[in-house]
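Human: We require from you a standard protein entry with sequence in single-letter code and fold as tokens, and nothing else.

Assistant:
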Amino acid sequence: MPERPPFDPRRIPRPPEPPEGTRAEFTALSVRQVNELVRGALARHLPPTLHVLGQISNLARPTSGHVYFTLKDDYAELRCVMWRSSAARLKFAPEDGLEVIATGGIDVYAQRGTYQLVVRRLEPRGVGALEVAFRQLKERLGREGLFDPRRKRPLPQVPERIAIVTSPTGAAIRDVLQALARRYPPVQALVFPVRVQGEGAAQEIATALRTLNEHAQALGGIDVIIAGRGGGSLEDLWAFNEEVVARAIAASRIPVISAVGHEVDVTISDLVADVRAPTPTAAAELATPVAAELAASLARQAARAARAARHTLDLAGARLAADLACEGLARPLARLRWRAQGLDELQHRLRHTLSELLRRAREYHNAAALRVLAFRSGARFARLGRMIDRHTHRLWRGLSAGVLRGDRRLALVLARVDKAGPPARLPLLAEHLKPVEARLRSITRNLLVHGRAALTLRMEAIAACHPEHVLRRGYSITRDARTRELIRSVRQVRARARIVTQVADGEFRATADDPRQPELFD
């Protein structure tokens, strides 16, 4: 468009001169009229669109949604206003000290008599608005701890149901579904269709994440959510850089895998999500195991667990047999019989002793009676006879009571022996063996769990060290075609020797030149 001529104050129309002799009030203008004249002059003689470079200062954002600030450089300042409709389209947050390029037109604020730049578009100088918005949001969410690795949750090893939040017509959904069907066919995929670019796409993605969390139980349980889309420009991927999506991912109770764009694309969703996948296909591979590998691993773990269980049971059986072979358990009645035999011997000795005492007492009594009869005379001998009779009666009574007490004690001892015998102790021993059996089962289960975990770790280490993984990274293995011997040094190479080189997807044959014999015309 043609450039406008520079502003010339002489071109502003002036009111007609009042006739001579008339009063001065005839030519007086109101303040508003003057400001309107200035506004019209500026509108006629200034371009409708100006691009102004400056630094933001005195930034104000009242509740009305309008943005007021001042652009300044080293020599001057310019008041600016950005109406709410234009401010809502900003991708970054203006802040004091930020150098920007403001695009808009000059207008006069008649109420104050000042002119200002009405900004329709605002861009940071040197970088795009999207880069500044990305940096600002990343710094703010980082201060809040949304990128903290400690809040990220691990993915389930074997998911049953996966929800996919993406466009139903894009290439990402086809790649994810094909990868899921190839790796783990039993998994169920729930597709939540949303827009992944354009106005309102971020709000749809955040709403989908919240809806899946709220109705996960009604949907039969969701183990993992994959949110993403295919590649594109920064503007195309911008929905996954919105704050509303980042906070919805952070608030999700279900682990979220972010799969946006290609490997070089990094979004705010990737930083907040529990796991970042470089592509949608990689997200499906991270979320599911390979069915064949899982079945083989489970079979190996089951076989090892069975062997460990058999070994544990054999060991426990051997220990139990050794315990049962002990004399106390093998012949529990032997000790009781020995005690019973000892009691019989004591009873026999007691009876013999009592009989001996009675015999001696009877002999002593008979001797005393003979002496009494030999010397009995008068009343004194009668009293002595009666005394002897009383003592004899008391002696017999005491001996009889002692024998009875011995019999009672013997009966009590025999009753206690019967009570402590094997028929009474066997139930107690059975109750004692129950917790031993429970502990044995618990130890067996713990051995199975730890064995399964150790097996998983070793299988992962073995898979990581497999030569095929090394070959996929660009390495190769060279052998002699005739002897199949590995070539580790140039000294093993002969002129015109046939060699075989193995790479990740196969092998090829070639003829080697002797590196010690340079070509004649090199």
